[in-house]
Design goal:
The chain is mainly beta. It contains 2 helices and 22 strands.
Length: 342
Amino acid sequence: MIASMALLGFVFNACNNELEFVEEGLSNGVSFSTTRASANQVFGLFETDFLAGQKIKAGTISIWNDYDNVYVKFATKDGWQIRRTHLFIGPKDILLDPANGYVNKNGSPKNGHFPYGEYFDPFVTEWVFSLPLTELYAMFGLDFDMEVDVCPVIAAHAEVLKQKADGTWQEETAWGNGNKFVKKGNWSMYVEGYCTEFPPEDPPTPPTEYTLKTETGWAFDSDDHEYGGNWAKYIQYNGEPLTVMILAGQKETDMTVTLTPAGEGKVKMVFENIFEIAPENDGKWVLQDVKEAIKVQGYATAPSGNPAPGQFTYYKGRELEIVVDAANYYGIHLDVAKLTYK
């Protein structure tokens, strides 16, 4: 998508050093990404912090390639959102030569003139840009050749915002963490460290045969919280955020479930370190291949006696993030297994 936009310059106050600088608007003919999904194959992955206001880790900048394209991903976290992006990717000497228009005569970036970018309304938390490798290699004066690696620099800039508790917005300028354009002055940066990478041969075919060591799992917070009659466990919940372990076959694991208030008499449950059956999850805990692998029951008072998970009513399914009715006690039962591919 090619857009012609005339945008007014804007001023950001960078936190901590009261730095103020004006960025130029997007020039006519700026290119916009048409890619919204990342590649299936990831080679040469390089990541760096996405810094807002110089010191706030507002997310990550990721760079990688497959056999056809190079990708740059802007991703925010902790409530930060993206309003506008500016991106340069290519040879370092092209970026830093004032004659090319990406920096001024003092070396400071004119990020409004970077060749790629996009404006978002509403705001987003992720932007993925792709560039054909043929175009990237042409910038280096080369024909695309998987036997030859190139190492472009990336200047990744964005306007980011975060809504405060009082409803107002904190606005910052953000850059991918790397080398400063200039030693003195503004803190804008470009990133070095990524180089194209191609496997010497096609990746091996993923294994298809596997075994499952099945176990029964229960959420656990105290040895005192047993139904009685067998080792089945329940947990107590007081309405505050709570993370508890999931026992499998009465043994400790790295599986957890986190409970948080969800408002209007509801509780959110998020299960971690539990996966689906797939080659990339070899050696991990997975849900068994059953329709209702997770079962939840709530209680007003502490339960007793042998539980019947098949009759639990608060939730039955396979989702790893669920919302259930609030209760003082919960029985959380899982059908899990340790996955091993042959």
